[in-house]
Each structure stands twice: as structure tokens, then as C-alpha cells.
Amino acid sequence: MRRPPQWIQIAGSVLIAIAIVAIAIAVVTAHFGPTSSAELEAREERVEERLELREERLEERREGEEERGPG
Amino acid sequence: MEQLIEDLTRGNVAEVKVVLATVILGLAVYQLVLAAVAYRWLKLPFLASPTASWTHRASGDAILVLTAVVATMCLGYYGLDEGGLHAVAACALLALLAMKVLAVRLGGRPGRLLPIIGPAVFVAFAIVWLSSAGDFLGSAG
User: Fold this and answer.
1) Structural domain total, chain B
2) Looking at this predicted complex, what is its ipTM?
3) Mean of pLDDT values over B104-128
4) Which among B19, B23, B54 has CB closest to A10?
């Protein structure tokens, strides 16, 4: 069997290297799943913000009740 | 430095390091095949020895750059604390890589050591990967 021209051999071997890189990235990223630690942190921040907002509303309600006085 | 690494990886320092280390390991396996073809230990009908040698060097250059990036991330972010086997293997790997580059550049007698240094570099890469990325992937899965 005759070998293909050198430029095809070079292109082919470089393409294989690129394929190895792409497969490694895809496999490891799939293993981690869609939730990166940055996403998890953002989610935690959103939960904290929601809790803070809830506490603020509760305080506002309490203050309103105190201003109105008992009865 | 820590802040820069964290900003560049958007907080996913370990994940980015694991991806890069796995890419390096994949390319290192390919390097073994290319070296075997270059030394004519393995004969492929579609790849000549000089071409395999050329790709081996090009891929090796890419591995060197990636290794420098991962090592900088590792030292800059985690430091040398709690290194254990990983730190020892990584130091050995860097020494072997330096030896390999020198052997390639000098040629002659040192160049004859390449068939020994090459597989040793691969083994060092495998140990470094197993002691960090392998561990991390095992615990993440």
C-alpha cells in the first residue's frame, strides 16, 4: 500500500491530536455535569438574597404592626 | 496570583486543572504511539517515520505549554502544602521534561537516551494525573 502524500499525513496526524483534545474535554466536562462551582456559588448567592429579602419584609411588617400599636 | 487564577477559571480552578491535565495525558498517550512510529518500532501503512517525528515534536511543544500552565495554576493557587505524592511526582516530571528537551536539543549521546526518557516522562505524567485529576474525578463521580 502506497503512503499518502506527506501533507496529508501531517494534516491527519494533527487532526488526530485535535480529536484527542476534544474527546478529553468532552468526557471530563460530561463527568462534571452542568453545575460548575461558579454556578453553585451563584445559586447560593441567589438563595441568600432571597432569605435576606424575606427577613427585610418580616421586619417591615413587624415595624408596621408596632407603629399601629396594640388593638 | 490566587485571585488572577480564580478570575481566569471563573472559580472552577480544580475543574479547569483536571480538564487540562486529562488533555495532557491523552496527548501523552498519542506521543508514545508517534514515537514508536518515529523509531520504526511500529509500522503504520499511512504514516511515515519522519512525519510521525514532526507531529511528535509539535504535539510535545503543545504538551510543554499546557504543562507549564497547569503547574503555574497548581503552585500559584494551591502552593506546596499537602502535596505528597503529587508534588514529588510533579517535581520528577518537570526534571524529566527538562532532561528530554535538553536531550532533543543536544542530540548525539544525550539524544540516544530519548527512548528511555520518553517513557519515563509518560509514567511521571500518569502518576501526576492519577494523584490529582484521577482522585478528583473518582470523588466527583
Assistant:
1) 1
2) 0.83
3) 90
4) B54
Q: Which of B12, B18, B26 sits opposite A20 (nearest CB)?
A: B26
Q: Domain span at residue B32?
A: 2-140
pLDDT recorded at residue A38: 65
Q: Do B55 and A20 touch (CB under 8 A)?
A: no
Chain A touched by B47 (CB under 8 Å)? yes
Would the pTM of this model clear 0.95, i.e. be above it?
A: no
Chain B neighbors of A24, CB-CB under 8 A: 19, 22-23, 25-26
* B53 interface with A at CB cutoff 8 Å: no
Tell me which DSSP letter residue A33 carries.
-
pLDDT number for residue B9? 81
